[in-house]
Known about the structure:
CATH topology: Butyryl-CoA Dehydrogenase, subunit A, domain 3
Number of strands: 2
Structural class: mainly alpha
Low-confidence stretches: none
Cofactor: FAD
CATH superfamily: Butyryl-CoA Dehydrogenase, subunit A, domain 3
Order of helices and strands: HEEHHHH
Keywords: FAD, Flavoprotein, Oxidoreductase
Strand content: under 5%
GO molecular function, one term: acyl-CoA dehydrogenase activity
Domain Acyl-CoA dehydrogenase/oxidase C-terminal: 18-156
Pfam families: Acyl-CoA_dh_1
Amino acid sequence: VLFDNVRVPQSNLLGKEGNGFKMAMSALDGGRINIASCSLGGASFAFDLTKDYLHDRKQFGQPLAAFQGLQFKFADMATNLVTSRLIVRQAAQMIDNKICYQNSCFNIANEALQLHGGYGYLSEYQIERIVRDLRVHQILEGTNEIMKVIISRNLLK
């Protein structure tokens, strides 16, 4: 929506003249925490589904959970999940961290998809939906690139 040559009476202004963009950007802060929490929930769900899958799925006569290479990936997912949880808890105070936990949560879901192999792309396994949902979180409420600009500006003040 574009407003060209629109006049707003002084009595209808919110805040000071010229600060509208700044006010709109600050309104995104709560949404960023919400998106981070949704990503964390999706990553946690992907982690739990993958844990069950690694125990249930058998290859070469043993569960996938018995294979060291998959254990390494799963351990990395667990570490990233714990880290992301801690960062999200601090999000109310440190909103600019969206980019860190956003990428971490997406990577957890993406690794979960990989650990499911070809089945990860099938809708009956739910992982593909989680990956799609978390990918869009990297765009909502400010893309990762925009978040880097905001972080850099604050650091360079």
